[in-house]
Amino acid sequence: MKRKFGKRPPQPSLSGLLRQNLTRWVLIPSICFILLLGGYIAYEKTRDFERRNTIIAQALSKQITAHVANAGNALGSLVQTMARYDEFWFQTMLNSFLQSAHHMERLLYLDADGRILASAPAHSELLSIRQFIDRVTQRPTVISTPIASPTTHDIVVYMGVRGPDGRVLAGELSMTTFQHHLEDLLPTAEGTVALSDTFGNLISHPDYKRVATQDNIGHLDILRRMHDRQSLTAFYRENGADFIGTAFKIEPFDWIILISRPVEEVFLPILGPIIGLLSMILLIFALFVTMLKIKLDRAIVTPFAQFTGFIEQAAKGRYQTTGVHDQSFAELAIIEQKFDDMVAQMAQRESEIKESEARFRQLVETIREVYWISDLADEGVIYVSPAYETIWGRTRQSLKDNPESFFLGIRPDHRLTVIEAFNALRLEGVEVDAEFLIVLPGGRERWVRAQAFPIYNDQGVRVRLAGVAEDITERKAAQHALLEAKQDAEAASQSKTEFLTNISHELRTPLSGILGMLQLTRESRLTREQAEYIDTAISSSKVLLNVINDILNIAQIEAGRLTLNSQPFLTHEVLNTIYRFFRHNAKSKNIELTIETESDFPPILVGDEVRIRQILFNLVGNSVKFTDKGHIRVWAGALPRRRDDGTVDMLLMVEDTGIGIPADKLDYVFESFTQVDGTYTRQYQGTGLGLGIVRSLVRSMHGSITVDSEEGSGTTMYVTLRLRMPAQETTPRTRRVAAHSKPERTGLAFLLVEDDRVNQMAISRMLEKLGHHVTCADNGRAALDLLKASRFDGVFMDIQMPEMDGMEATRQIRTAPEMTGVADIPIVALTAHAMPKDRDAFLEAGMTDYLSKPVTFEELARQIDRLPL
Fold first, then answer.
1. Is it true that the peptide bond before 269 is cis, omega within 30 degrees of 0?
2. Per the CB 3.0–4.6 Å rule, which of 157, 246, 250, 627 could disulfide with 255?
3. Model-level pTM greater than 0.85?
4. If you average pLDDT over residues 347-372, what whole number do you get?
């Protein structure tokens, strides 16, 4: 394949490169610096012109203002004087005043009706004054804009004042006098000064012809930009010439003073030195470059030409040193020395590359994995390691001849997925990591894991593909064995859970009948001794029920099905329940039981109240069991740290003076089904599940439990639970029915569906004693028949029954067309299935609520009160 090379642009010579760099980094910065310096000087010159002219304009403004004020004061004094004289003296007084007031050209004295009483010069007609007569007040004021006098045709301003007798004295204030006065005040070197009104009409100007013709300069840029400004310095153009000027507004009269000079007069003095300095720099630079070029040719260009020959030889692979010679400058000698070192390193690196290539080939040809490289352009295989023949059972040459044979060896049901992955690698550069089955020529199958990735050139373009493939048949077999072992373990765990659940059901069913009959017997007429026996039997049954509950809790924890139900609860209610439950047991053993809380302990928290009560039951129950004298102290408080997520750590401490725990048994007591004393002669009975359950419950609430104990001196348990603080408006709903209290609802008709005769008798009698009517059915089918024939307020439904279970019966009640009339009747599951998942299943089937056996009078009463009747 022929490669086309583009024509390379000509490279600049060393002298040309140096000239370019000198121009770029020396000449141009120098010129820029001088220009910036000139600009700065021009800027400062402009600022100085502005400051100086502003001061002059302010002074001229004060002079003009004072000039007009003096004229006004003189007119005021004159009108006061003339009011005291007869008309005979009017002409004389006006003539005398006019001779002393050179700035006044004409005077006119009028009566209150506007008739002329006297004028100076005499017999002069000042007709234009009549249009301004109404503006005259008792204070001397300017009553007209600058206008041409009808007599002298000079630019004047009329001033007037009204005397105490109502007569008016008016005069023409000469603007020509202003111009001479301004020119006298303004230094000759500071330029020219002109005076105009806000519309640009000239009042005073060095060229009086422009004033006489009332020339207007309002078109000048400096005046148009004045607006509401007091002063402005700017450049402007007039009659083809450029000027710089300062305009200043005279506030009392809305006149504008313009002081200006031609631009060349201001800036020419600084332009000459800058041009001369630039010319000198350019001349010096040209001489310097010429001398430098001659020196470079002799000292650098010729030695570098010789050095280039050695570089060309090195580029052709002829690694020979230059043999450092004496050079005209040390840098070239250093370069030649570095070049010799580089040549030596290149020769050594080429040798190392060859050695590395040999080692790489030895590695890839001896490893068990297949290593391959392919070209992305023609998809041909560049290299494949010998392990390909071992794993695929085909020759390497066959793969090079037909790269598609790699995919043809994959089992058909895996082939399409692998092809799609490699297409994504070719088109998008997505790396491949796939596991698939290949079929060997003999028909055997083998698991292979293939990894492939793109290779990029220096420009970031994908040019090749590379990959590794390994035989993972043995690993897959091991994974399959582990999976089967895991499934067996999960099946064993499930079997254990189901066994414990069934045991719980089978124990709860007869226990429900026992407790029910005992409670009914307790409500009958008994002797004191008989009542004591019944209470003891009920207490023992509750202990047995606690054992069953502990077994279920362990089953839930080990199966990972322990769930928490967080709701707002009253903390003192939980603690009072613990106290009421254990106070009689503690009192019977002469043990002091106290429950304390810190002063600022939150009255309401959000958490699983039932599980928190269960933790305290186990801890306080253990203390009561293993303490024979002394005291038991329960303390509750909140740790001081409050988190941003609204949670707080609740600290519970249970301290007793019991038998204590040996130091080597502290961790052992938290294991399930264990006790410190495991002998047949142990004094304290129990299943050993309590602390194991407590530890699991505490961990599920993101808490911790620690124990401080000394054998023979007592034990202190510390428990922290992470709970949430309630919202401000949250208030837990508490509703309790005490034993033997009168239920809120009586006289209801219930259908009890129960196949066990003892439970049927016990529960029906309990409902009757609560004041309700009960009809019994042995199974779900019988219950459906009774619901069709009679009216009931609610149904208590057992789950496990012959012919039709409670779940199916509930579904029939809710959905069957013939049961439409009772489809919304409340149905309470009354069953020995007590796992949380069972409750969820019952509610999903359409049941209204759930009660686990055995039940008490209080639970039945609370449940009936909650029913939506």
1. no
2. 250
3. no
4. 72
